[in-house]
Amino acid sequence: MDAKCNFSVWWRHTNDFTWNSLSGGTVGLKPVPLQSLSELERVRLQDVAFKRLLRCHDLGCHITIPKCGHKHKKSLRRKLDSLSKEKSKDKDTTPQAFGIPLSHVISNDRMRKLRHDHPREEHSDPTELMLSFLHLTSSYKRANKELSSSNSSLSSTSETLNESPLPSTPDIAPRTRRRGGVSVDCITDLDDNQSRLLEALQLSLPEEAAGNTKKHHDKKLSLNPIYRQVPKIVDQCCQHLEKYGLQAVGIFRVGSSKKRVRQLREEFDQGWEVYMDEEHSVHDVAALLKEFLRDMPESLLTRELYTAFINTMLLDFSEQDSAIQLLLFMLPPCNSDTLQRLLGLLSTVSAHAEDSLDSEGHKITGNKMTSLNLATVFGPNLLHKQKNSDKEFAVESFARAEESAAIIGVVQKMIDAYDAMFMVPPDLQNELLMSLQETDPDVVDYLLRRKESRCS
Predict the structure, then answer these.
(1) Domain Rho-GAP: where (predicted)?
(2) What is the pLDDT of residue 181?
(3) Nearest to residue 343, comparing CAs of 368, 378, 298?
């Protein structure tokens, strides 16, 4: 076994993905979905995947971890402000979905939901209730300690118990803004009962304030899985196509009604509640989804990783899937979550490409959209450096035809290997935990205890 760390009750077997504790607990690491990781783990996974990529794959280009969110915020805001002044319209005319950064779209969705559910959330937000409970519990513990060591009268003790929660009560509200989870720095203050209560809250909310200027290392990262960051328009389009469009021949290639697509676009951009049912043409919805991806200021696979993704096609065939997966793990959560939702749809569509027979032996016509056809349609929308004009997104004009073929190859591999692409393998989890153990051993202890309790 490796030498035990002085600050941790857990250690791992050499050349194994099993961790043991002094109390006799054992956790064997198994593949887990990316979205099941906590916010802190996902941020650390970006760095671990980056180092693994440099160590194991020579992509022949400079690689950096994409930054989350607001790269185009200032220029976009100035552009929208000037446009607003020229047209003498109020700020509600700012697009809510199309042509704005992905993180802003998700933030807009979240704010609309908060406004819609405000009366209910104000009284029943599970995060606020949990934090209030933990705060009051710790306050009463301090009060009990003071009681046991004090010679004061019963009446004065009663006053202490009644008043102790009040002075620090205002701290509860700011802490609930920290993505909905208890911050890393206070995890060691939790006893077993509080830890179990913390585990009951499985989701933390994404960053809601688009204008947050805090540096990355100053943020408090949650130990719970973050809220799934997929724009509502993407999720609704995917659900509609999965329900009504799987047998539509040429889905994503057959033409649509420009008028109806424009109407749907305007409804989403105005922040309306849009309902799509069987009356909506699947080809209109498919066109709307492509248009959303095409109009994003930054491609879903990010500009920083453009060349890296392209160069994965130059590796040996056996290395390509692994390199692509590591690049996916380097994406910001909003990008990877949205990509996962989209690829889930495309994988399902491609599974219905060929003709088949129903239970009674009748022929079911396939949609003809294989993974190659889908990759050809979506590749330029998912991976590009910049747009060539206001109405066209594509690979830059000087790019070679080989790059276009590589883009299609990358997206096709993502569709074909969708089930495995977003599963974090044990060896990578092991590196992640070892990385955390160097800086946050208490966090490793908490995460492994949670894994142990789930296994048992």
Answers:
(1) 221-422
(2) 43
(3) 378
Enter the pTM of the model. 0.73
Structure tokens at 330: 């380097």
Nearest to 304 by CA among 332, 282, 325: 332
Tell me which amino acid residue 249 is: V
Q: Which helix (H) or strand (E) holds 82?
A: helix 73-87
Among residues 234, 247, 276, which one has the least CA distance to residue 102? 234
Residue 122 to residue 453: CA distance in whole angstroms: 32
Provide the pairing of β-strand 392-394 with 26-28. Answer: unpaired
For the ranges 23-32, 159-168, 274-283, the one whose mean pLDDT is highest: 274-283
Distances (CA, A) of 100 to 16, 52, 439: 45, 32, 36
10 Å CB burial of residue 201 (0-12, 13-18, 19+) is middle
- How many alpha carbons lie under 13 Å from residue 435 in its C-beta half-sphere? 19
Contact call for residues 333 and 106 (beta carbons, < 8 A): no
Q: Nearest-CA neighbor of 312 among 212, 213, 412?
A: 412
pLDDT of residue 115: 84
Is residue 260 packed enough to be buried (19+ CB in 10 Å), middle (13-18) or exposed (0-12)?
A: middle
Positive/negative CA dihedral, 337, 371, 421, 407: negative
- The Cα–Cα gap between 394 and 128 comes to 45
Q: Which residue has the higher pLDDT, 446 or 289?
A: 289
CA distance 52 to 255: 43
Give me Rg for the CA atoms of the chain. Answer: 25
Give the model confidence (pLDDT) of 125-179 as tens digits.
555 555 555 555 555 455 454 444 444 433 444 444 444 444 444 444 444 444 4
Question: What would the two tokens of residue 398 be?
Answer: 């000087």
Residues facing 356 on adjacent strands = 364
List beta partners, residue 142: none
367 and 247 Cβ atoms separated by less than 8 Å: yes
For residues 260 and 86, the answer to whether their CB atoms sit within 8 Å is no
Q: Is residue 76 scored above 60 in pLDDT? A: no
Q: At CB < 8 A and 24+ separation, what contacts does 73-76 make?
A: 73/101, 73/104, 73/210, 76/100, 76/101, 76/297
Burial class (CB in 10 A: 0-12, 13-18, 19+), 331: buried
d(Cα 153, Cα 150) in Å, to the nearest integer? 9
Cβ atoms of 293 and 300 closer than 8 Å:
yes
